[in-house]
Design brief:
Blueprint (H helix, E strand, L loop, with lengths): L2 H8 L30 H5 L7 E2 L2 H4 L17 E3 L4 H14 L3 E4 L16 E4 L6 E5 L4 E4 L5 H9 L3 E2 L12 H7 L6 H4 L6 E7 L5 E5 L11 H5 L8 E8 L1 E2 L5 E7 L2 H13 L6 E6 H11 L9 E7 L4 H14 L2 E7 L2 H12 L1 H6 L3 E4 L2 E2 L5 H15 L2 E3 L1 E3 L4 E2 L2 E4 L4 H20 L15 H7 L2 H14 L14
Parallel strand pairs: 2-4, 3-4
Antiparallel strand pairs: 1-2, 5-6, 6-10, 7-11, 8-9, 8-10, 12-14, 12-15, 13-14, 13-19, 16-21, 17-20, 18-21, 19-20
Helix pairs in contact: 1-15, 9-11, 9-14, 14-15
The protein binds flavin-adenine dinucleotide.
């Protein structure tokens, strides 16, 4: 696909160059707020549960889009904020009756446009469903409502000596519902896997308002199709998740942390493969390039010099963490690390991780950003980063490279000027080239941010035609009217 086609796919009349975290004004968004076939919306509003629906354009505008860039933004018709599963079901039944599209919204921190409202849609916000319902220390389970912030669950279970591993960079504000619907990853996936690895059961409201339970509370159970994991990662296109049961682990021992610095990004990429090959037990293996380190340095002053072209942050929470980090250090030195620093001080590690979480906001200060999210086998990280460097030089663009290198999931962040057509076209060409490279290397177009509205056109490149048809059929089976998040995941 060429850059012009991509521009068409990824942009729309309402696309604005404002920062997504600024409050969006209704006038900035594409109308109409109500489609022409809207029917009697005033009569409809009166039938919603009291206090649940708002339709004032200046209020609903704040729910129009997520944190993605270059995805279409529209003014929703209304925002519903139900407090119970029954109210969700009631809202969904009314929307279905009137044929109104519905997009579920957690914190709106998504990076693929999956929570962007289609024109005239009802946004269903889960912010009033934010209770931790149960923490069971014997069966090691937690049951939560979808609006619970992930960091709040992690903190609550740690108070009873348990551990909920998934830790996306947005852990302090993204919700469990959003994490389930995007199958969110994070920094500890290299050892602990992704959100879906912890979800054992769900309650969900279907597009016709019926309530379905999936999964179970037992460690094992194979009765029927695995509908739980059909909903995990479905980006709000199959059902509205209203309750989530996750399994918990015993809290791990305190982690030891290591930072290795390199004079070239390729050396750091080689070290990622070497650490894998030496079977080092890492619970985190993050890579940051010079552009990203420089941007973070301006905000957090960690003391990385200009001569550092790339750094790896390695953590091990194994009982043998000292041995594991010694092995990781040896692998890094074999790959020409210029300096290696090891620490067992939890405060130092915390500071480093907080700095790592600044990568995206720090890069955003360099200009407009187009963030990619590709994942390749760990052995091919070096090929991916070398390709990204070449593309940056060819297109004359600065590309910050950071990500969860231990599981091959990198976030090349293209810095460009959205108001300049040439810069924008070059950015789209670079984005396309990087995504295509990931597929060529045996990887995927998205490791954790999802397809959303940003990568719908690429999905058909990854799926074979039969699989693509099955995707469409599954979606029709669960949502025959096509009301749930139309335009997301499968375009059209
Ligand atoms: C600074 C920053 C760092 C980030 N780091 C990471 C990271 O390390 N790893 C990672 O995976 N992501 C990361 N993200 C992306 C984002 O935070 C995740 O995708 C997160 O899971 C989205 O959660 P949310 O509550 O904001 O969901 P939203 O953005 O509101 O929604 C995301 C999708 O989930 C659907 N959805 C939300 N709630 C429900 C529900 N109850 N039922 C059905 N569908 C629902 C929405 O319709 C939409 O399709 C980061 C984002 C930022 C801004």
């Amino acid at each position: 696909m060429g850059a012009e086609e991509l521009t068409e796919t990824m942009t729309g009349p309402a696309q604005q160059d404002e920062a997504a975290r600024q409050v969006t004004k209704a006038d900035d968004l594409a109308g109409p707020q109500e489609p022409t076939d809207a029917g009697d919306r005033a009569g409809l509003v009166a039938r919603f549960p009291a206090g649940v629906l708002i339709t004032a354009p200046e209020l609903v505008a704040g729910y129009a889009h997520d944190e993605s860039r270059l995805t279409q933004r529209n003014l929703p018709w209304a925002v519903a904020s139900p407090a119970t599963t029954d109210e969700v079901a009631q809202c969904m039944r009314l929307a279905a009756e009137a044929g109104i599209p519905v997009v579920v919204r957690g914190a709106g921190s998504g990076l693929s446009g999956a929570a962007n409202a289609p024109a005239g849609a009802m946004v269903l916000s889960t912010h009033r469903m934010a209770s931790i319902l149960e923490i069971d220390t014997i069966d090691r389970l937690a049951v939560v409502q979808p609006g619970v912030v992930t960091g709040a669950l992690r903190a609550a279970v740690s108070e009873v000596g348990l551990f909920y591993p998934p830790d996306p960079g947005s852990v302090a504000f993204s919700t469990m519902g959003g994490n389930v619907a995007t199958n969110a990853g994070g920094m500890c996936c290299v050892k602990y896997g992704v959100t879906g690895d912890y979800v054992v059961g769900l309650e969900a409201v279907l597009s016709d308002g019926r309530v379905m339970r999936t999964g179970r509370r037992t460690i094992k159970g194979v009765a029927g199709y695995d509908l739980t994991h059909l909903l995990v990662g479905s980006e709000g296109t199959l059902a509205i998740v209203t309750e989530i049961t996750v399994r918990l682990l015993p809290a791990p021992a305190g982690a030891a942390t290591m930072v290795a610095m390199f004079a070239s990004l390729s050396d750091a990429g080689r070290a990622v493969a070497a650490i894998g090959e030496d079977a080092v037990d890492t619970s985190m293996l993050e890579l940051l390039d010079r552009t990203t380190l420089g941007a973070i340095e301006r905000k957090a002053h960690l003391g990385f010099g200009d001569d550092v072209a790339a750094a790896l942050i390695v953590q091990s929470d194994a009982p043998t963490s000292a041995d594991q980090l010694a092995a990781a250090e040896a692998a890094c030195r074999r790959c020409d690390a210029t300096e290696v620093v090891v620490s067992t001080d939890p405060d130092e590690a915390d500071l480093l991780l907080r700095a790592r979480r600044l990568a995206l906001p720090a890069l955003e200060e360099l200009g407009d950003r187009l963030l990619d999210d590709v994942c390749v086998p760990r052995s091919r990280v070096v090929d991916l980063v070398e390709h990204i460097q070449r593309v940056g030089i060819e297109e004359g663009l600065e590309i910050g490279v950071f990500g969860h290198a231990g599981d091959g999931n990198m976030h090349p962040t293209i810095i460009f000027d959205e108001s300049d057509d040439a810069s924008r076209t070059a950015a789209l060409r670079a984005f396309d080239s990087i995504t295509a490279c990931a597929l060529r290397l045996g990887g995927t177009i998205t490791g954790e941010h999802g397809v959303g509205r940003l990568k719908g056109a690429w999905l058909s490149r990854e799926l074979d035609p039969v699989s693509a048809e099955m995707h469409a059929r599954v979606r029709r089976a669960l949502d025959p009217q096509g009301l749930l998040n139309p335009g997301c995941l499968l375009p059209g």
